[in-house]
Amino acid sequence: MSAQPATRTKVQLPHWLHGSVQTGFLLVLTLIVLAPLLIMFVATFQDGNDVIRRGLSLDIDRSSLSLDNYVMLFTDSGPYFRWFANSILLTVVQVAGTLLVSSFVAYGFAVYEFKGKTALFIAVLLLMAVPFEIMMLPLYVLVNDVGLADSYSVIVLPFLAAAVTIFYFRQYFLGIPKDLLEAGRMDGATEFGIFFKIVVPVAKPAFAAMAILNGMIIWNNFLWPLLVLRSESKFTLPIGLNTLLTPHENNYELLIIGSLFSLLPVLVLFLLFQRFFVAGMTAGALKG
Questions:
Q1: In terms of C-beta density within 10 A (0-12 exposed, 13-18 middle, 19 or more buried), how is residue 141 classed?
Q2: How many CB atoms are closer than 10 A to CB 238?
Q3: Cα separations (Å) of 210 from 68, 97, 141, 183?
Q4: Sign, CA torsion 236/239/245/246
Q5: How many C-beta neighbours within 10 Å does residue 50 have?
Q6: Please, what is the Cα angle at 265 between 205 and 69, to 5 degrees?
Q7: Which of 69, 132, 207, 208 lies in the 20 to 30 Å Cα band around 96?
Q8: Alpha carbon of 33 to those of 26, 183, 212: distances in Å?
Q9: What's this model's pTM, rounded to 2 decimal places?
Q10: CA nearest 163: which of 225, 92, 213, 89?
Q11: What is the torsional sign of CA 162, 166, 167, 168?
Q12: Which residues pair with 250 in a beta bridge?
């Protein structure tokens, strides 16, 4: 006669304990994320050479703290704010252009049927797997051959149709009911009218999510602008900050405080669109 297996008793944790553990875990993660930012913020009140010699740390001599770096930033930072303005301009223009062009392409893949549609979409997927470093050299040669080097257009135009953005929008648009689009056509709306008056309002979370992701990538873009920009007055912020380190002289003070201020636009962008960002990423995952 076989022995009956012992029944296991499930222990249910109290609700308050479960909530406390979850809150504590999130607080630890928050501290881990914010600690580097706090250390960098404290470093902006210190002498740059001391920071480089001793490293970034919260173990500091309070008597050595001063506002000299902030005074220098707003009174004697040279072309820093010109680089800052260049980065903001390029980011705004490229994000707007990328969202417009990529959403158009994705809308075509999601809504219309045409010859070669599957092959073209497979090509988009393959582009997602190709590192930019592989395309960089032939693209650089092309840019020099057509005489577009040292211009902002060559930074913006080649990347308006972003493969990842196209893929995301296409997956999102597939979740929009076709009856909604047909209703617009029956009301006499043009295809552009349907897109801008029906699809775009419905897909606001998707546009916000892609605006944040593309904005972060474009704002921190370093390699391609470094290759094609040659005039100091046209440098973006990442390139400009890199020029502060030279074999002859290093401006660590401006590098540290300038790097901290470079975080502000991305932070503001995320705070403005975080509600749509979360909704867009969640909806995109469910509809993908």
A1: exposed
A2: 18
A3: 38, 12, 30, 27
A4: negative
A5: 14
A6: 160
A7: 132
A8: 11, 47, 19
A9: 0.83
A10: 213
A11: positive
A12: 245
For the chain, what is the radius of gyration of the CA atoms? 25
- The token pair at 76 is 């004697």
Q: What is the number of residues in the chain?
A: 288
Question: How many degrees, rounded to 5, is the angle at CA 232 between CA 228 and CA 238?
Answer: 70
Residues 212-266: tens digit of each pLDDT: 889 999 999 999 999 999 888 899 999 999 988 876 667 888 888 998 899 888 8
Q: Which two tokens stand for residue 254?
A: 């401006």
Return the closest-CA partner of residue 106 out of 189, 193, 175: 175
**pLDDT digit string, tens, across residues 52-86:** 777 777 777 777 788 888 988 888 888 999 999 99
